[in-house]
Design the sequence.
């Protein structure tokens, strides 16, 4: 199931809020998290909350939409909404996803959302992962990849060992080996995956990580030796 993207509307016109709220609620890929009627409200909200997508008006009192983008260190992905086309060229200097001219029609709104989702997909595919998201005791948690020492099969579950804690999640070793980056992790036994850079000692039939002996399967010995050779 795809998690809806959290959106925020920043516009001083109630009519614009009405239209965008209606459009967002018709799209199951989006979730309206907040509505702000000026840049100050938006600035306060964004300092305390994580938002995926911002629908931002340009012409607002006190602080304009472009000034808000300049103020934010890490602004969310932004779709500008305005009645003034003369700002279009300048707006793209801020890395905005799209520029919607008011009145905003639903087909044009959908096209803009598709553009946003395609950018998200490309970024996800090219991003270097830094954590592993798993479900533990019914809650999704992120485990930093650098903290993982090794993984052990546990029936239809796996145990993920870090120095601080052991996590148990409903996955198989085969599934997990697909999730972990192959440049940092390697399967060394039918029941074990290890973090290569966490190896303390390496013998013919076992590996030592954090004083724990981990069996080394015959079929994995050659590959491990080849991968460790440049490190020696």
Sequence:
């Amino acid at each position: 199931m795809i998690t809806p993207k959290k959106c925020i509307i920043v516009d001083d016109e109630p009519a614009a809020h009405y239209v965008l709220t209606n459009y967002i609620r018709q799209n199951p890929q989006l979730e309206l998290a907040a509505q702000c009627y000026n840049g100050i409200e938006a600035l306060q909200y964004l300092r305390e909350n994580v938002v995926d997508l911002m629908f931002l008006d340009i012409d607002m009192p006190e602080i304009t939409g472009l000034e808000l983008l300049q103020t934010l260190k890490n602004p969310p992905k932004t779709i500008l909404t305005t009645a003034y086309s003369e700002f279009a060229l300048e707006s793209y200097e801020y890395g905005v996803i799209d520029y919607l001219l008011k009145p905003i029609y639903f087909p044009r709104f959908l096209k803009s959302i598709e553009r946003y989702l395609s950018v998200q997909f490309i970024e996800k595919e090219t991003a270097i992962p830094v954590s592993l998201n798993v479900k533990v005791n019914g809650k999704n948690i992120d485990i930093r990849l650098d903290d993982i020492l090794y993984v052990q099969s546990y029936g239809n579950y796996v145990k993920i060992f870090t120095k601080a804690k052991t996590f148990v999640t409903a996955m198989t070793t085969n599934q997990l080996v697909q999730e972990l980056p192959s440049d940092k992790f390697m399967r060394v036994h039918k029941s074990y995956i290890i973090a290569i850079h966490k190896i303390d000692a390496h013998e013919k039939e076992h590996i030592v990580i954090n004083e724990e002996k981990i069996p080394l399967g015959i079929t994995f010995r050659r590959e491990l030796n080849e991968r460790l050779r440049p490190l020696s």
Remarks:
- The first strand starts at residue 5 and ends at 10.
- The radius of gyration is 24 Å.
